[in-house]
Amino acid sequence: MTISNPFRSGDKREAGKSDEEWRRDLTPEQYAVLRKDATEPPGSSPLNDEKRAGMFACAGCGNPVFPSDTKYESGTGWPSFYAPLPSEEEGTDGVETKTDFKLVVPRTEVHCARCGGHLGHVFNDGPAPTGKRYCLNGAALDFTPHD
Ligand SMILES: [Zn+2]
């Protein structure tokens, strides 16, 4: 878990790495979450308390995915957002979702559209205006405050 990685917007070369390369380039926590769909323990990420204005990017490839102005305190112990950066926005590839059947009740999994890294899940109990709760792993994110 690190929030000090340089912000590498638009670095498409990060996508398409081998498993070995991901293992080498990520911390064990980042690798477990991004590449193996692990979920970090609630309350474990310093990004829970990150309140500054800035951008949350995929820790795997630097793709900017969630702006700080859609972050809110969900009380779950995971960084939570009500909307991702629109994929039409310049400089981002946005996020994609797919249905995850790992538990009895299917959940919607959220991943980085650039490198496929697992970020978390999205639920329908979020605040206005979207009603969505993007429940993310801090280990999958790098935060860069605005100047
Ligand atoms: Zn990514």
Automatic annotation (TrEMBL):
Coiled-coil blocks: none
Presence of keyword rRNA-binding: no
MsrB domain boundaries: 19-146
Transmembrane spans: none
Gene Ontology annotations of biological process type: protein repair; response to oxidative stress
Basic and acidic residues bias: start-end ranges: 9-27
Record-level GO cellular component terms: cytoplasm
Pfam families named in the record: SelR
Keyword Transmembrane helix: no
Disordered as annotated region, ranges: 1-51
EC numbers for this chain: 1.8.4.12
Keywords, in A-Z order: Oxidoreductase
Catalytic activity from the UniProt record: L-methionyl-[protein] + [thioredoxin]-disulfide + H2O = L-methionyl-(R)-S-oxide-[protein] + [thioredoxin]-dithiol
GO molecular function: peptide-methionine (R)-S-oxide reductase activity
PANTHER family hit by this protein: METHIONINE SULFOXIDE REDUCTASE, PEPTIDE-METHIONINE (R)-S-OXIDE REDUCTASE
Designated name of the protein: peptide-methionine (R)-S-oxide reductase
